[in-house]
Amino acid sequence: MTQILLLDTATRSATLALGNSGESRTVRSDPSERNSRDLMALVRTLFENSDGLASTDLAAVGFNRGPGSYTGSRLAASVVQGIAYVKQCPVIELNTLELLYFSGLQSLVQSSQSPISGTEILVAVESKVGEYFWTGFIVGESTHAPQITVGDADALSGSIQGANSVVIMNASMQSHPSLTGIADVIWAEPRVELAFDIAAQRLNQGAVVDALSAEPLYGQDNIGWRTLAQQRAQR
């Protein structure tokens, strides 16, 4: 079956997964010690039981562009560019919000609360102190290139109250005092190993980029600090 390599260094732990939706292997770093040396060590660990990267037939390489750690996303983009260039395979772009969405959906399914097709899901992750990114997904529809909103806790709470949606938030936000009033939240963590299905779908549809075009989200959009500054200027 198709072998895809997925990387996520934009979130708390660097995670690599190799395989497909039927069978895969995942390795994850210690979140307190992630750096470029650790990432390459993870690559070696992941391939040590498959005759090495050079001997592995990869159909594509996917990575999390963000939002999240810009340094981490940039590191992943650099590694992905090198691997995809050498292996002459395309790159599949993923984002943090959809990885959190997939994780939250899995939690709902495991608790026998699987949402029906067409259900609206609001997904939120933290950006930096006092700032959040969020977007809306609809179950059964595309999660590619979501329209991302950025704002403070009040703006996020307002979006949640006005949306009447199922809400999935990054588990690391549970301790944020400004969010304690939001009820019925599904707490989850982004998991790139749950993205094999969507990665294969984008590969089959040709929704890919070449190796040298792989870039972190912030590298193209700069959506965080400018938008929040604009919001504050309007108050």
Care to give the gist of this entry?
The chain has seven helices and ten strands. The protein is of the alpha/beta class.
Structure characterization notes:
The chain is an alpha/beta fold and 235 residues long. It has helices at 36-47, 70-87, 96-110, 153-163, 196-205, 217-221, 224-233, and strands spanning 4-8, 15-19, 24-28, 60-64, 91-94, 120-128, 131-138, 149-151, 166-170, 185-188. Strands 3-2-1-4-5 form a five-stranded mixed beta sheet, sandwiched between helices. A five-stranded mixed beta sheet has the order 8-7-6-9-10. The longest helix has 18 residues, at 70-87. Residues 224-232 have low confidence and may be disordered.
Give me some keywords for this one.
235 residues, alpha/beta, 5-stranded mixed β-sheet, 7 helices, 10 strands, 23% strand, globular
The whole-angstrom Rg is 18 Å
Secondary structure: number of strands: 10
How many alpha or pi helices? 7
Broad structural category: alpha/beta
Tell me the strand percentage band. Answer: 15-25%
Mean pLDDT: 84
Overall, the morphology is globular
Instruction: Tell me the series of helices and strands, N- to C-terminal.
Output: EEEHEHEHEEEHEEHHH
Largest sheet: 5 strands, mixed
- How is the largest sheet built, in terms of strand order? 3-2-1-4-5
Question: Which regions are unreliable across 5 or more consecutive residues at pLDDT < 50?
Answer: 224-232
Give the termini separation: 55 Å
Residue share in helices?
Answer: 25-40%
Q: How would you summarize the topology of this molecule?
A:
Elements: E1 4-8, E2 15-19, E3 24-28, H1 36-47, E4 60-64, H2 70-87, E5 91-94, H3 96-110, E6 120-128, E7 131-138, E8 149-151, H4 153-163, E9 166-170, E10 185-188, H5 196-205, H6 217-221, H7 224-233
Parallel strand pairs: 1-4, 4-5, 6-9, 9-10
Antiparallel strand pairs: 1-2, 2-3, 6-7, 7-8
